[in-house]
Amino acid sequence: MQTQLSRRSLLKLTGLAGLGAAAAGCSSGPSSGAAWAMWSSSPAERKVWEDFSAYVERELKVESLPTLTPSGGYPTKLDLQLVSGTAGLVTALNGWLIPTYAARGAHRPLDDLIAGDPDFDLDDFYRPIRDISSFNGQTYAIGFDVAPTVIYYNKTLLAAKGIPAPSPTVPMSWATFRDLAKELTGPDQYGFTCAPSVDDLVSWIYCAGGNVMNEAWDKSALNAPEAMEAVQYVVDLFVKDKVTPPIANLVTESSLANFMEGNVAFMHNGPWQVVNVRKAKFDWDIMPFPAGAAGSTPRVSGSSFAIPAKVRGEDLDLAWKLLKTLTSEGALDIYAEAGRNNPARLSAGSAFKPPPDNLGIVQDILAGKIAGGHPFDVTTNWNQVKQLLGQDLPRTFLGQVSVQEAIDGITPRLDVLMEQHQDNVRQASARKG
Amino acid sequence: MAVDTLPAAATTPRQHQRAAKKPRNKEALTAWLFILPSLIGFLIFTAGPVLAAGVISLLNWNLFSSPTWAGLKNFARLGPDPTFWSALGNTAYFTFVSVPVTIVVSLALALLLNEGVRRIAVFRSLLLLPYATITVAVAFVWIWLYIPRDGLVNAVLGLVGIDGPQWLISDNWAMPALIAMSVWKSFGFGMVVFLAGLQAIPQQLYEAAKVDGSNAWQTFRSVTLPMLSPALFFVVVTSVIGSFQVFDQALIMTNGGPGSRTTTLVMYIYRTGFENYDQGYAAAQSLVLFGFIVVITAAQFLLQRRLVHYDN
């Protein structure tokens, strides 16, 4: 039987369908369970977080609800979730963002929860990740990974040139490193690769005894001789010594992609890339960062879990249990066994297994047994600092401006950002009361 | 003779008016019903956010803490902010180069296709493909094309003896490189609109021009261009608005660099609001951009009265 649909009925149906769709779109996600947010950019990463999720369900006997977002879009999504109150009970944070969120009151301090929980041992976490996860004298997050920057080297290339493998315990000097990089550079072969970004520059600056900001963190220190020397050294590797692969653009330039080509001798990167470098079709290993005037004290970075400020009451209790579970030895064993990065707990450290053969130096550096490390010093407006340096410093790597010119141009603007940082700290202190 | 209906003269003028109004009211109601979904969408997703931006621009708000009153302070910050003006300059450069080039390319291709090209639908579809492809994917392909040493663009230039520049990292060439990619990405839209406009021009006008002895250029200037002016006006207005909002390709291909040579206004607004957590200032910048677009569009509508020819 055919039924005729009048125009009025059609309009009514369309309206109802629209309302239905809107209602479906507006309905919120799962309202119960242990919801947590994490970045994930590959199937391998996804597998790790699925294993974490299963572990949480086993331990807590509640449904684990991870929200996984590609790392590039994670901060923006997290912002929106935090503002709209849909962020879940626990959120993962890259260490350099912790002061940014803490100063703005997006996450809550954890000191009261730590103090009230005799089962939780903060001392089992490496000192650098505890520093990275703190702001204004309070702990805002608990780490799940931490590692110093190291140098990866292509054993096959070094052996072909008859160069002995570098020492895993004694960092080489900057002069030796430059000489080796030059020696290993030839037609379609390069001595060194790093990203032309501030994230990679800071390790050299720390090793030279400098920093991006002064000791009081209220002025730029990039124009201090130590920092200038470090920036000049790295820029010379690109522009004067030409030991690096040519820069094609400033957005997708990747030291890992360069190294994986198999024609680069040394790569500046962190142990978090071990899982990817394991796919290399050549022999490789890692060594301590080359020592500058202040020794081998490269950037130590890490990531942590934190609790959004809006989580309260019974939710807070579950959030703390969830956070403890996600950073427990059992969870970090899963993380380390997958080779994602060095776990933040000393008790889970041994789980991060070779290859490479020298992987143990990561723990030794963190424990201060060989060389050292420098927690990544970031301000509460590091996004802006990063933008400023990310825009103006790379031009030195391209030889478009000298290091002196670039830093002279950056310094006044960086000084303003340091003042803004101090304002942020003051406001956060006032909120703390 | 039996009369079973009232004669027409029996209805009063008032009754007649009421009878005539009824269908009109019904038509109006139907029209409103059709417009309603769009109107609701406009109020919720366009007018609402604009009003919200107006309020937020008067606040200090970092997204997470409670906002505080700022008054007009955020607008006052715009004057001495060199990055804002440099971003505005870059956006204007992008707009005033990319829009004319896009229109010339679109119009030229539309004229070509309109000249009895066989399998016009196939060509139209092929030429529309860049417009239909998402910008992010296109941007990544163009990054590869622009690689200084091994990229296709410099390889082709090399064939004719030109040593191509370091496109995306060059002070002088980064913006032209972005413009070239944007023209390639968006000419398809203008081309389709122009093609539709060209096919709607009555043939009698061309025949009359021929009888009058017009050559090709005179015919184009006196017949095609005036008759196409509504389509041209539409493409210019939408292209200018779109170009002032350029964001994704610049973010992906150059991240605003080298230096700040390709930092566009929308990119700066995004960074201010979502990376620097300065919502009030970002809202103030958005409103200023909105103002620029409104003024330029209004100017175009004023010019329209003199330059656009409507058949009716």
TrEMBL record, chain A:
For the keyword Signal, the answer is yes
Checking PROSITE patterns in the record gives:
PROKAR_LIPOPROTEIN, TAT
InterPro entries referenced in this protein's UniProt entry, alphabetically: Bact_solute-bd_prot1, SBP, TAT_signal
A Pfam short name: SBP_bac_1
Keywords on record: Signal, Sugar transport, Transport
Q: Which residues form the signal peptide?
A: 1-23
- Cross-referenced PANTHER family: ABC TRANSPORTER SUBSTRATE-BINDING PROTEIN, ARABINOSE-BINDING PROTEIN-RELATED
Report the protein name in the record: Multiple sugar transport system substrate-binding protein
From which source organism is this entry? Kribbella italica
Automatic annotation (TrEMBL), chain B:
The record's region (Disordered) falls at: 1-23
Name the InterPro entries on file.
Answer: ABC_transporter_permease, MetI-like, MetI-like_sf
Q: Does the keyword Transport apply?
A: yes
In terms of one coarse class, where is the protein primarily found? membrane
- Highest rank taxon of the organism: Bacteria
Instruction: Look up the record and report any one GO term of the cellular component aspect.
Output: plasma membrane
Write down what this protein is called.
Answer: ABC-type sugar transport system permease subunit
Where is the organism placed in the taxonomic lineage, from the top? Bacteria, Bacillati, Actinomycetota, Actinomycetes, Propionibacteriales
